[in-house]
Design a protein that fits this description.
about 40 residues; mainly alpha; 1 helix; about 75% helix; rod-shaped
Length: about 40
């Protein structure tokens, strides 16, 4: 049943997209606070 593999692949893709959206949100919030990420550490 090939479609089981297709569904699993789709779920993984959606999980990856959700992770990237969450990461983008964190970076946007960080930018709004004026933080420079690694540069702010030094």
């Amino acid at each position: 049943m090939q479609w089981f593999g297709d569904v699993a692949g789709l779920q993984e893709s959606l999980r990856h997209i959700a992770d990237k959206k969450q990461q983008a949100g964190r970076l946007r919030a960080q930018a709004d606070r004026g933080e420079d990420g690694v540069a702010a550490l030094g």
